[in-house]
Amino acid sequence: MKVGEATHFFCRLVEPDGKPNAKDIMNQELLRLIDAYAAEHKVGIEAAFGALEAAIAKQVGVAQAAGPGAAAPKAVVAIDRAGGDVTGDIGGSPIPATRLAEAVLHVQRQMRVAAPAKAAQAPAKPAVRAAKPAVKAVEPKKIASPELLRIVEGLARDKNIDKETVFEDLEVAMVSAIRKAYDTEDAHVSIDRANGCISAAVGGVEMSVRDLGRIAAQTAKQVMIQRIREAERGSIYEEYLDRRGQIVTGRVARWEGGSLIVDLGRTEAVLPKGEQIPGESHMPEERIRAMILDVKEQPSAVRIILTRTHPDFIRALFELEVPEVAEKIIEIKVMAREAGYRTKVAVNSLDTKVDAVGACVGVRGSRIKNIVEELGGEKIDIVRWNDSSKILIANALKPAAVAEIALCFELGRGTVVVTDDQLSLAIGKRGQNVRLAARLTGWDIDILTPNEFNAGLDVLERTLREAPGVDSTIVDQVVAMGMVNVLDVEEVGLEPLVNELSMDRQLAQKIVTRCAEEARKVAQQQAANKEKSARAADKSASAVVEPPAVPETTEQPGPEAPPQAPSEAPQQPQTDAAPQQ
Known about the structure:
GMP Synthetase, Chain A, domain 3; 5-stranded antiparallel β-sheet; 3-stranded antiparallel β-sheet; rod-shaped
């Protein structure tokens, strides 16, 4: 049900002169004659309808008679109280439309002739151009309109708005039309919710909405369209506001700049360029799934923002594909994502009989495969959750095998030791694996080889023992706090040593000062090594040259070779030239 259909019906109801066809003209003229008949004879509208139906039926019977003096067959005629359509049958058969129209015209002519002659002879009053029509104090005709009820129900259902709101909008539109036609504020319109009858009054005098003109009908039309659209906009805003964080399926409508416009059925949503997965491309009319990120109400429309890069989009996909996640048997604790490349998901099972990782993967990877296909091949690592930070870090760095982990709670840093063959696997392509693991666990993760780890411990132990009063117990305590090199001690500072280890403040100050001095030396040494490595790389790159070309003078020119000028001949060593005969 479209708004245009409702406004078309409304205009037909209040605008009888708005470009009607011949049948509409006849119907409207018939209804006006019935109103005049009821007013002249002081009878009700229903009685006037009955009298006119009897007159038309009699005329049809006379026209259908076999000849003069023959008995006229009995005809039954009915006039639609809303639109004025005339239907009937005679002898059990429908009356032909032409015969029915002739009978109606004949009755109308008879009623005009029977009108009082003084009405035709009365002098015409000069028309005032800007005058508004007067309200006729006649008995209003109650028009039962099942079609109006059907349109209201269709609008309420299709636009997802309350039916009472549609009725109120129609009443307000009709009031606007009456105020436009009669230039008054004292207007009232009510619609019977049961049968669709419309009651209107101006200044306390009841009237018929059919007395309104074309301009007033257009005013009512604009008011009704505006109010229904406002109600629909409010309905759309409330509906999609409650659906934030849910996945919706739509159709790609068009591109606007870098943003993708998605048709959701009732309205359109926008998928900004920043919320699209890098490398993806979509064609018009393609089906697409995305998550509702935000809903904003604007003066002209409701702006619905979609996303495919947000981590919660992965969560929503797991809820769709893994029933255990939707039923809260498996809990997604935390996620880390780089859209289009890789995602790490930490899961935990609340039921000891359910394996969290196995349920998410599915039989032969069926469940996780569907999610990966929806994301265009993005890699997904499912990590088993653990309350122990060391175990969680080790699980997050998989598939790399971890040899040792040292946690420094003061710095929020975890130092992870892996063997040389696992180093590149732990770091990942462009540092992606360790970066996602750090975001997943909430720890700043450093990856070291055993040689680098031991070298840092040796320097730390030597520096600590140089401070007076430091023994192996203090060294072990410092290492147990997760400080594995002099840089960590300098960064942690004085207070943790005093508070956590109950160390003398003067001794702690000496340790921090000594480690700071050594840290500067280590930093300078690292910078020098880095610069040396860079120079070596540049030197090796410049050493790669093209192999020398074979001298052309070592070969005798063929008989067809063109002679070269002496000035252009290349100068070659004497040993490379062939002897001339």
